[in-house]
Amino acid sequence: MKDALCGNTVAMVGLNRFITKITTLTNEKEADAHLISAMKFSVSPVVRVVVQCKVASDFSKLVEGLKGLAKSDPMVVCTIEESGEHIVADAEFNLEICLKDLQEDFMGEVEIIKFDFGVSFREAVLGKSCCTVMSKFPNKYSSLYIEARAMEDGLAETIDDSKIRPKEDPKD
Q: Which of 21, 1, 41, 75 is nearest to 11 (CA)?
């Protein structure tokens, strides 16, 4: 079949290697074609986990499985960190379902191990900020005042060594 008329469905194979999440295909002569807009979500992919294969020889299946998972779910984000860790990010309620789909549907029941994602500390502030920034809460009664300053020498190492914890007295 050479042409497909408006309203017809056309199936093509082999394009999944080149097309990721959202696209519209047309010939270059078509001036009235428009991209399908991306779906808007009310949640963000904020929960992150590190995934690895239980057996190292299944690594290629993990990589292919992550590609398939990223294509199948428009909200999931699969990335590789500088350290080489494979990260899957999604909304909290959807992450467990995505990991189950990754293992069962995209990796052919190959076992995976998941770890909590650790955020590395990175400092970019060199001195005290020149102003204090204020933000009001939606209730209109509460405000938050913030100013930036550089961390003291050795503080990042003390936090990494768990000598300081979030619930301790700030003065300490």
A: 1
Quote the pTM value: 0.49
Q: What is the CATH number of the domain that holds 59?
A: 3.30.70.870
> Between the CA of residue 146 and those of 128, 129, 135, what are the distances in Å?
11, 10, 8
111 lies in the same domain as 52: yes
Q: Find tokens 């191990």 and name the residue.
A: 113
78-101: pLDDT as tens digits: 888 877 889 998 877 788 888 888
Domain count, the chain: 2
Q: What tokens were used for 138? A: 């939606």
* Both structure tokens of 164: 């300081």
Boundaries of domain holding 65: 47-116
Q: What is the pLDDT of residues 137-157, one digit of tens each?
A: 888 888 989 998 888 888 878
CA angle 8, 12, 13 (to 5 degrees): 160
For residue 152, what are the CA distances in angstroms to 58, 119, 120, 128, 166? 44, 19, 17, 12, 16
